[in-house]
Amino acid sequence: MNWSGWYLVLVLVAAIVVLIVLINSRVRFSPFVALLVVALGVGLAGGEDPATIADSITTGAGDILGDVGLTLALGTMLGRLLAESGATGRIADAVVSRSTPRSLPWLVCAAAFVIGVPMFFEVGLIVLLPLLFSVARRLELEGAAPSPYASVAIPAIATLATLHGMVPPHPGPLIAVDGLGADLGRTIVVGLLCAVPAIVVGGPLYARLMAPRLPVRPDAELVAQFTETGTETKTPAGVGPDGRRGEEPAPVPLPIALVAVAVPVVLMLARTVAEVALPDGASFRQVTTLLGQPIVAMLAGFLYALFALGLLRGRPAEELRTSLADAVKSVTGILLIIGGGGAINQVLKDSGISDAVGAAASGLPVSPLVLAWLLALLLSTSTGSATVGIVAATGVVAPLLAGAGPWYVALAVVAVAVGAGSVGLNYVNHAGFWLVKESFGMTVGQATRSHTAVQTVVSVLGLVMVLLLSLVLPAGA
Fold first, then answer.
1. In a 3-state reduction of DSSP, which class is residue 292?
2. Of 80, 89, 190, 297, which alpha carbon lies 20 to 30 A from 227's?
3. pLDDT tier for residue 404 given thresholds of 50, 70 and 90
């Protein structure tokens, strides 16, 4: 590679450094603003025509928000409906109602897995807190576990973090799917194959080792708030415009709750099965291709939940609209970060930097898997945002995978390499760290040995699994 190519690589390195400094220095730029500033600087330093830099920024942001942003908004509203209707509580109660102290960590993983499919890490943990505190309180009274709160917290953290990084329809994996042109259904399959071992080791097995060494207990008032009201989230259904509460609805039937979670994932998987098993012109394949698109699948799940968990259970339409609007407001910052990441990725392509990086990295004795994982890990750790780590790492490694088949793309970058890297070393500049610390009454050291350590174990195991699977799945499949 000539000097001009190496210059473009240096521009990228400098851009990453500047991005980290802008987010973490005293100026404390929001990640969205920092991404836009760096995108503009990269375009100028990379030699892109100044007249087209703005077009690159708007095109990149618009494309990724169109593909991922709408899906994220629908997923957030779906999560709100699940939480407020009590559906998540029904699922969780069903999973752990007949547990024993030995089986409890495994059943907590199962509950977190079902609940965490459509939710962010922080949202899923908040929804699970009533269940976790109630179960831990029961163990505490029975004296059945040396540290009951750590025993239930660690499996929940491992499961939610793994889903957040590795398995669509979470927004992080969806961003990588979009940026790499990966097959969504295959990404879900490979992501699940890699996620299960990571959850097992980072959750119940690590809890068995570490929980006795973490004698933590949340604030007494917080415990009382959750345990005295039961494990089921209370729904505000029946509150009229005059503020007067009517009769509380009956608990959500468990099958209805499970269907609300399963609809998007089942539709996306059905699309992949149909594309593999049916010829191109088959009518059923055309139907599943439409319904299995992420935006359509999530819309179907949301509409089902809107009626089954909301309107048909007596919740006023105006109340639902207000609640769902508030849910979308809560992820506005994430949507902006996603747009900023799309902008900088487009500038990298239009300025020729992505091609230069591909040419430089192709000669290095480093697997694209390891490079993708490491970039996402470092960027997520230094910026405090897993989303920033995913979008930036995806833009850098995408040129290295040109011509690779969909299995390899899903395996190498989307499912684990980028996604797993983004959840590792989750420390004090991440919101999730402080949520876990404060919720369970931990010191910084205890949160490090639980939350940070668990997510790092998950991250490393994700990389190990994807490296092992890469020996089985052909690169050009």
1. coil
2. 80
3. low
